Structure formats: C-alpha cells, structure tokens
C-alpha cells in the first residue's frame, strides 16, 4: 500500500494540495480575527479574556507567517473551500449566550468552542507540517512548524483556563 501512495505523489500534486489546505487554514484565521474581539467582549472570566486576546495576537502573527509562505511560493491564497472551519467558528459565535445573567454558560461555551477550534488548527497544522517537509523548499516547513507550536500552546492554554474556571 505504501508504494502505491508514493507512486502517485508528485511534487506538483503535493504543492497543489499544500496550497489548498494552507488556504483553508489561512481563511479560518481570517474568520477568527473577525470573531475573537466579540468573544473577548463577551467573556466575563478575566483569564478567559486574556487567553482570547493572546489567541487573537497569535492568530495575527500566524497569518503573517502563512502570507510569507504564499509569497515564497509565489502563490495567492484561495478564498473559498473553508466551509467546515468557518462553520465551527460561526457555531461558536452563535452558541455564546449574550446575556448578563448567564456568565457561566457563556464562558463555558467560549471555552468549549475555542478548544474545538484550536484542536482543528493543531490537526491541520500537523498535516501541513508533514506536507511541508516533503516539499523541496524547506523554509515552508519552519514557518508551518512555528504555527503548529503556537496553536498547540493555545490549545493547552484554553484547557488550563477551563480547569481554572471550573475550580473557581
């Protein structure tokens, strides 16, 4: 089975898939930068607010890294085909209860969906990292690896904040 996969894997196909998947991740980050400020305003737990603000800053830094990859590859990101990630981000926003009487429900909804979003990004970044290592030009791999490290840290941060919130 392994030899069949290797025979059909050309550098052109790999590059095409890499660009498409990188575009999906980039577009998800665009959606996040649009929605995170609203979640920061809605959060009532101070450490959650700080984690969301940190995630927003990190997302912006990751977008710069992803744009750099596109520039190095002399490609533009595709602005479609990211319905799944956008749906999760939209669902997260819709599930947050914008009601002053329901702080716990709102904060826990934010934490739940941020955990889902971060873990989706970890999985996507891991796959991109594997593909980048197979591409001829290695700086892609370093930039993707940096993004992967950031999303792993943020996934851990939201897990920590959730534990802290449930203990308070």
TrEMBL record:
It holds the Pfam family DUF892. SUPFAM superfamilies: Ferritin-like. InterPro entries: DUF892_YciF-like, Ferritin-like, Ferritin-like_SF, YciF. This is Ferritin-like metal-binding protein YciE. It comes from Mucilaginibacter lappiensis.
């Amino acid at each position: 089975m392994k030899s069949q996969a290797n025979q059909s894997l050309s550098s052109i196909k790999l590059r095409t898939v890499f660009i498409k998947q990188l575009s999906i991740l980039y577009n998800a980050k665009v959606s996040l930068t649009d929605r995170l400020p609203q979640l920061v305003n809605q959060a009532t737990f101070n450490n959650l607010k700080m984690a969301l603000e940190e995630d927003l800053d990190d997302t912006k830094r990751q977008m710069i890294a992803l744009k750099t990859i596109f520039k190095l590859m002399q490609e533009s990101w595709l602005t479609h085909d990211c319905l799944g990630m956008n749906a999760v981000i939209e669902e997260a926003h819709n599930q947050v209860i914008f009601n002053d009487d329901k702080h716990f429900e709102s904060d826990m909804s934010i934490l739940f969906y941020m955990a889902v979003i971060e873990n989706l990004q970890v999985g996507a970044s891991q796959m991109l990292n594997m593909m980048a290592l197979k591409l001829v030009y290695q700086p892609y791999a370093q930039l993707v690896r940096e993004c992967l490290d950031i999303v792993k840290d943020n996934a851990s941060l939201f897990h920590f904040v959730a534990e802290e919130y449930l203990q308070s």
